[in-house]
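Quick one - first record:
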Amino acid sequence: MAKTIAELDREVAGTVSTMTERLTATGKGLDQVQTSLEKTIEIVHDGRREFKVLKHRFEDYVKRMEIWDNRRWGLIMLMAGALLSLAAGLIVALVRR
């Protein structure tokens, strides 16, 4: 038996209503995904900023260590020179006796 126009109209209205509800739910889900994506992007940007700060601090640390290493080797060479000078002085003093 064929459906009447009123029955078909009710079916179409029900289908449209269902599709509208699904579309609304999908839109809400999309909004949640967009919010999560924005938070994720913000976290990534914060991580990059923190990484840049840590990288800069590490580079400063490396420069300081290089400076201290140069100073330490300079001090070692100075002490070695002083020790050799002392040894040479003692040798000369012992040889003159």
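second record:
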Amino acid sequence: MSKRVEILEIRLNQLKDEMNKLDNRTHRLYLRKQNEQKLMLGSYFHVSDEQFVCQATNDTRVVLRYVTDKYGEIVSYVLNDRWSRDEQAERVQDSKIYHNGSTFDTLDQHILDQSQAI
């Protein structure tokens, strides 16, 4: 092989390594975003009765259930959001909360009061 081909192959391998590192970083940032969304969504809902637990099951869903029942849901809230990306950042375009068949555009005090009443 010529010297030029060897140099190009070395550079190709370097670029592949950099691409893999960027893919790994992107994936870690995505997982971090999901975890932060889950924590933020879960922090909106509280239950003071010891019979019930309110739990964020993932980054878009919160459920109220009995402590003794791992799978039965009494109430669930699902966040549906759309994101857009530009050169500087990702931004939320819009979001909606689904609550047992009802749809809300904002997570306001009314929804929080309803969740406390249950």
